[in-house]
Protein backbone atom coordinates (compact mmCIF):
# COMPACT_ATOMS: atom_id res chain seq x y z
CA UNK A 1 0.00 0.00 0.00
CA UNK A 2 2.77 2.44 0.79
CA UNK A 3 5.03 1.63 -2.15
CA UNK A 4 2.51 0.43 -4.73
CA UNK A 5 2.70 3.56 -6.86
CA UNK A 6 6.39 2.94 -7.45
CA UNK A 7 5.52 -0.24 -9.35
CA UNK A 8 2.68 1.47 -11.21
CA UNK A 9 4.90 4.31 -12.45
CA UNK A 10 7.80 2.02 -13.30
CA UNK A 11 5.53 -0.35 -15.23
CA UNK A 12 3.59 2.29 -17.17
CA UNK A 13 6.05 5.15 -17.49
CA UNK A 14 9.40 3.42 -17.24
CA UNK A 15 12.47 4.14 -15.16
CA UNK A 16 12.73 7.78 -16.28
CA UNK A 17 9.26 8.62 -14.95
CA UNK A 18 9.93 6.66 -11.79
CA UNK A 19 13.19 8.56 -11.24
CA UNK A 20 11.48 11.93 -11.65
CA UNK A 21 8.80 10.96 -9.14
CA UNK A 22 11.04 9.27 -6.60
CA UNK A 23 12.62 12.41 -5.18
CA UNK A 24 9.45 14.34 -4.33
CA UNK A 25 7.58 11.21 -3.30
CA UNK A 26 10.39 10.01 -1.07
CA UNK A 27 10.92 13.37 0.63
CA UNK A 28 7.22 13.90 1.22
CA UNK A 29 6.41 10.46 2.55
CA UNK A 30 9.57 10.26 4.64
CA UNK A 31 8.86 13.61 6.30
CA UNK A 32 5.46 12.35 7.43
CA UNK A 33 6.86 8.98 8.48
CA UNK A 34 9.66 10.43 10.60
CA UNK A 35 7.34 12.93 12.28
CA UNK A 36 4.75 10.27 13.09
CA UNK A 37 7.35 7.93 14.57
CA UNK A 38 8.20 10.59 17.16
CA UNK A 39 4.83 9.75 18.69
CA UNK A 40 4.21 6.15 17.68
CA UNK A 41 7.38 4.58 19.05
CA UNK A 42 6.68 5.80 22.57
CA UNK A 43 2.89 5.91 22.65
CA UNK A 44 1.77 2.52 21.32
CA UNK A 45 3.58 0.44 24.00
CA UNK A 46 1.72 2.42 26.68
CA UNK A 47 -1.64 1.50 25.18
CA UNK A 48 -0.51 -2.11 24.73
CA UNK A 49 0.57 -2.34 28.36
CA UNK A 50 -2.77 -0.96 29.54
CA UNK A 51 -4.88 -3.34 27.48
CA UNK A 52 -2.72 -6.31 28.47
CA UNK A 53 -3.29 -5.32 32.10
CA UNK A 54 -7.05 -5.48 31.50
CA UNK A 55 -7.71 -1.73 31.56
CA UNK A 56 -9.43 -1.39 28.19
CA UNK A 57 -10.95 2.03 28.91
CA UNK A 58 -7.54 3.49 29.76
CA UNK A 59 -6.06 1.92 26.61
CA UNK A 60 -8.80 3.53 24.49
CA UNK A 61 -8.07 6.85 26.16
CA UNK A 62 -4.37 6.45 25.44
CA UNK A 63 -5.04 5.74 21.76
CA UNK A 64 -7.21 8.86 21.63
CA UNK A 65 -4.34 10.83 23.14
CA UNK A 66 -1.95 9.23 20.65
CA UNK A 67 -4.13 10.43 17.76
CA UNK A 68 -4.12 13.96 19.18
CA UNK A 69 -0.33 13.85 19.53
CA UNK A 70 -0.04 12.64 15.94
CA UNK A 71 -2.08 15.63 14.82
CA UNK A 72 0.01 18.00 16.93
CA UNK A 73 3.24 16.71 15.39
CA UNK A 74 2.14 16.03 11.83
CA UNK A 75 -0.15 18.87 10.82
CA UNK A 76 2.21 21.78 11.60
CA UNK A 77 5.16 19.82 10.18
CA UNK A 78 3.48 19.03 6.87
CA UNK A 79 1.99 22.51 6.46
CA UNK A 80 5.41 23.97 7.24
CA UNK A 81 7.03 21.72 4.66
CA UNK A 82 4.45 22.81 2.10
CA UNK A 83 5.15 26.48 2.86
CA UNK A 84 8.90 26.14 2.30
CA UNK A 85 8.71 23.72 -0.64
CA UNK A 86 10.18 26.13 -3.19
CA UNK A 87 13.12 27.07 -0.98
CA UNK A 88 13.78 23.47 0.04
CA UNK A 89 13.68 22.19 -3.53
CA UNK A 90 16.04 24.92 -4.77
CA UNK A 91 18.53 24.10 -2.00
CA UNK A 92 18.33 20.32 -1.86
CA UNK A 93 17.20 18.93 -5.22
CA UNK A 94 19.11 18.67 -8.49
CA UNK A 95 17.77 20.91 -11.25
CA UNK A 96 16.54 18.01 -13.38
CA UNK A 97 14.09 16.95 -10.67
CA UNK A 98 12.97 20.34 -9.36
CA UNK A 99 9.81 20.97 -11.37
CA UNK A 100 8.30 17.56 -10.66
CA UNK A 101 9.40 17.66 -7.03
CA UNK A 102 7.74 21.03 -6.49
CA UNK A 103 4.49 19.75 -7.93
CA UNK A 104 4.26 16.54 -5.89
CA UNK A 105 6.12 17.13 -2.61
CA UNK A 106 3.18 18.68 -0.77
CA UNK A 107 0.72 16.08 -2.05
CA UNK A 108 3.06 13.26 -1.04
CA UNK A 109 3.52 14.71 2.44
CA UNK A 110 -0.22 15.20 3.03
CA UNK A 111 -0.85 11.67 1.78
CA UNK A 112 1.80 10.39 4.19
CA UNK A 113 0.14 12.25 7.04
CA UNK A 114 -3.22 10.64 6.28
CA UNK A 115 -1.63 7.21 6.04
CA UNK A 116 0.07 7.75 9.40
CA UNK A 117 -3.35 7.93 11.09
CA UNK A 118 -4.23 4.57 9.59
CA UNK A 119 -0.89 3.05 10.57
CA UNK A 120 -0.49 4.55 14.03
CA UNK A 121 -4.02 5.20 15.28
CA UNK A 122 -6.91 3.21 13.79
CA UNK A 123 -4.66 0.34 12.70
CA UNK A 124 -3.17 0.12 16.17
CA UNK A 125 -6.67 -0.13 17.64
CA UNK A 126 -7.33 -3.16 15.45
CA UNK A 127 -4.00 -4.67 16.54
CA UNK A 128 -4.74 -4.18 20.23
CA UNK A 129 -8.16 -5.78 19.79
CA UNK A 130 -6.55 -8.65 17.87
CA UNK A 131 -8.68 -8.02 14.78
CA UNK A 132 -5.97 -9.47 12.57
CA UNK A 133 -8.30 -10.66 9.85
CA UNK A 134 -9.66 -7.15 9.45
CA UNK A 135 -6.10 -5.82 9.30
CA UNK A 136 -5.43 -8.10 6.35
CA UNK A 137 -8.62 -6.93 4.65
CA UNK A 138 -7.70 -3.27 5.19
CA UNK A 139 -4.24 -3.95 3.78
CA UNK A 140 -5.64 -5.62 0.68
CA UNK A 141 -8.11 -2.78 0.25
CA UNK A 142 -5.27 -0.25 0.43
CA UNK A 143 -3.24 -2.12 -2.18
CA UNK A 144 -6.20 -2.35 -4.55
CA UNK A 145 -7.32 1.29 -4.32
CA UNK A 146 -3.75 2.62 -4.42
CA UNK A 147 -2.95 0.64 -7.55
CA UNK A 148 -6.21 1.55 -9.24
CA UNK A 149 -6.23 5.26 -8.41
CA UNK A 150 -2.52 5.68 -9.16
CA UNK A 151 -3.05 4.10 -12.58
CA UNK A 152 -6.00 6.39 -13.32
CA UNK A 153 -3.98 9.34 -12.04
CA UNK A 154 -1.04 8.54 -14.33
CA UNK A 155 -3.20 8.65 -17.42
CA UNK A 156 -5.10 11.70 -16.18
CA UNK A 157 -2.35 14.01 -14.94
CA UNK A 158 0.96 12.13 -15.19
CA UNK A 159 3.01 12.10 -11.96
CA UNK A 160 0.90 14.68 -10.14
CA UNK A 161 -2.10 12.48 -10.87
CA UNK A 162 -0.31 9.42 -9.51
CA UNK A 163 0.51 11.11 -6.21
CA UNK A 164 -2.97 12.62 -5.97
CA UNK A 165 -4.40 9.15 -6.57
CA UNK A 166 -2.26 7.76 -3.75
CA UNK A 167 -3.47 10.55 -1.45
CA UNK A 168 -7.09 9.70 -2.25
CA UNK A 169 -6.36 6.01 -1.72
CA UNK A 170 -4.86 6.74 1.71
CA UNK A 171 -7.95 8.80 2.58
CA UNK A 172 -10.29 5.97 1.59
CA UNK A 173 -8.20 3.46 3.53
CA UNK A 174 -8.24 5.65 6.62
CA UNK A 175 -12.02 6.03 6.34
CA UNK A 176 -12.40 2.24 6.11
CA UNK A 177 -9.96 1.57 8.95
CA UNK A 178 -11.48 4.27 11.16
CA UNK A 179 -14.99 2.94 10.60
CA UNK A 180 -13.89 -0.54 11.66
CA UNK A 181 -11.95 0.76 14.67
CA UNK A 182 -14.90 2.85 15.85
CA UNK A 183 -17.64 0.28 15.29
CA UNK A 184 -15.82 -2.90 16.28
CA UNK A 185 -13.45 -1.58 18.93
CA UNK A 186 -14.90 1.68 20.26
CA UNK A 187 -12.07 3.89 18.99
CA UNK A 188 -12.68 7.60 19.63
CA UNK A 189 -10.99 10.26 17.50
CA UNK A 190 -10.00 13.45 19.40
CA UNK A 191 -12.15 15.84 17.38
CA UNK A 192 -11.91 18.78 19.79
CA UNK A 193 -8.12 18.53 20.11
CA UNK A 194 -7.65 18.12 16.37
CA UNK A 195 -9.83 21.17 15.72
CA UNK A 196 -7.77 23.33 18.08
CA UNK A 197 -4.54 22.12 16.49
CA UNK A 198 -5.89 22.80 13.02
CA UNK A 199 -6.89 26.34 13.99
CA UNK A 200 -3.47 26.98 15.53
CA UNK A 201 -1.76 25.65 12.43
CA UNK A 202 -3.92 27.85 10.22
CA UNK A 203 -2.97 30.91 12.28
Outline the structure in words:
It is built from six helices and no strands. The chain is mostly helical and 203 residues long. α1 runs antiparallel to α2 (56-83). The mean pLDDT is 92.
Write the layout of secondary structure elements.
Blueprint: H1 4-52, H2 56-83, H3 85-92, H4 95-128, H5 132-185, H6 191-202
Any idea what the radius of gyration is?
18 Å
- How is the biggest beta sheet arranged? none
Query: Can you write the helix and strand succession as a string?
Result: HHHHHH
Mean pLDDT: 92
How far apart the termini lie comes to 33 Å
- Stretches where pLDDT falls below 50 for ≥5 residues? none
Structural class: mainly alpha
Shape: globular
Helix content: over 70%
Give me the number of helical elements: 6
Taken as a percent bin, the fraction of beta residues is under 5%
Total strands: the figure is 0
Amino acid sequence: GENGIRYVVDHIGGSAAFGLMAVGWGLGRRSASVASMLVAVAAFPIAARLINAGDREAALGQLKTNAALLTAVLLPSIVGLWLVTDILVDLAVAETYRDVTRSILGLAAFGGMIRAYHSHATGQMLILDRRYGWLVIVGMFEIAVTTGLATVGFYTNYLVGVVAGALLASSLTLAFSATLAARLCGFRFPVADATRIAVATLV
